[in-house]
Amino acid sequence: MNRRAALIAVALASLLIVLYLVLRSGGGGGGEVSAPGVLPTPTPAPEQKVMLLFLGRDGLLHPELRMVSLPAETEQRVRAVVSEILAGPSGRLLPVVPYQAQLLDVFIDGDGHAFVDLSPPDHRLEGSNIELVLTYGIVDSVLLNCPDLVGVQILFGGHEVPTLTGHLDLSAPLRLNKGLIATS
Asked: Environment class of residue 59 by beta-carbon count within 10 Å: exposed (0-12), middle (13-18) or buried (19+)?
């Protein structure tokens, strides 16, 4: 009888160990089973306050603060900022892009320069102020919200352009220009 009791005790202990391991691993049958290769839904980026620059009636760039889902990854931050600029101002300010532009692409080189590719204008733009406001409304908004970047170059339709209206050199990345931002 001692032998029979010992076998029952060993079997019972083995069953308890197996039951413990199954429950601990989540395989108890009551939990969710995910299909192989299915990725979990990404968590949205946290909302942060950004400063976007839009045109004022005085011809200068004026800040508009806005809460935006802003990813940590720099390229995605640039996309978020430029998308907000292209959506236009929410208040009394005017857009900096005077046509219905689309953001085509964004990439960043190893030197900290962002390249923002916009759809080209559907008509010829004219005037130095249009060129300055469009360019620095985008460049300064990106640089103010992405401090790890040192410059931004705007491309149109996937191509570098030497200038947009003949007044500003757009053939290389531009740095922050606070001279066009209103002080009040």
From this structure: exposed
Q: How far apart are CA 71 and CA 77, in angstroms?
A: 6
* Spatial contact of 128 and 137, defined as CB atoms under 8 Å apart: no
> What contacts 63, CB < 8 A, 6 or more positions away?
51, 52, 53, 181
**pLDDT tens digits for 106-138?**
999 999 999 999 999 988 888 889 999 999 999
The two tokens of residue 47 are 């909302």
**Which two tokens mark 48?**
């942060």
Neighbours of 148 (CB within 10 A): 10
For the entire predicted model, the pTM comes to: 0.76
d(CA 132, CA 59): 10
Are 84 and 66 within 8 A, CB to CB? yes
User: Edge-to-edge, what's the strand order for the sheet holding 113-118?
Assistant: 103-108, 113-118, 151-156
What is the SS3 assignment for 160?
coil
Question: At residue 116, what are phi and psi to the nearest 5 degrees?
Answer: -110, 115
Per-domain residue ranges of the chain: 47-180
